[in-house]
Amino acid sequence: MAQESVTPRLIAALDHAWAAIRARHPDVPEVVMTLGAGSAGNAPGTLTLGHFAGDRWQRGDSERLPEMFIAGEGLSRGSLPVLATLLHEAAHGLASTRDIQDTSRQGRYHNTRYRKLAEELGLDVAEAGSIGWSATTVPGATAGRYTAALTGLTGALVAWRHPTPAAAARAAATRAVRPVRLRPPNPGSRIRP
Known about the structure:
Layout: H1 6-24, E1 32-36, E2 50-59, E3 63-71, H2 79-97, E4 103-104, E5 109-110, H3 112-120, E6 124-126, E7 135-137, H4 140-145, H5 147-156, H6 166-176
Parallel strand pairs: 1-3
Antiparallel strand pairs: 2-3, 4-5, 6-7
């Protein structure tokens, strides 16, 4: 008996969970769901579980769509933590829809406006040191509202990605940085510090 293909099951379950969030919170935007490496290019031992990025995809001639990225490494955590990641990123989606600045420091620091949006989605939110109100968990009452989505995720989480080894991540980062040679503006002139 042939096994069902993994990719469509994963993406369909993630997309179904996102649709369930949008059904409860219409300001959460439609997204293009992507799945990939959350450890590649990061500092050793760090993992990006997900991200929401506005206007990354083009549909047709005039419509831009945001991207919802889920790290394959995070799928090993199970359905409730994956739902937590989706809801965390949905709070960023609300901020985007409502034109609210919810982060700073290149999107790493989650401010009190982010905390309020995450709470609106039913998350418990706590401070996480230098990254602000980023620690989010799904309380029982919120999980109960997403029973069907959690069941779908549980059935679909049959595979997950292994983290990129630290040495490979460092090598990839090194290859991405190209040295820049400064040239004087005029032949014969010197570059001053």
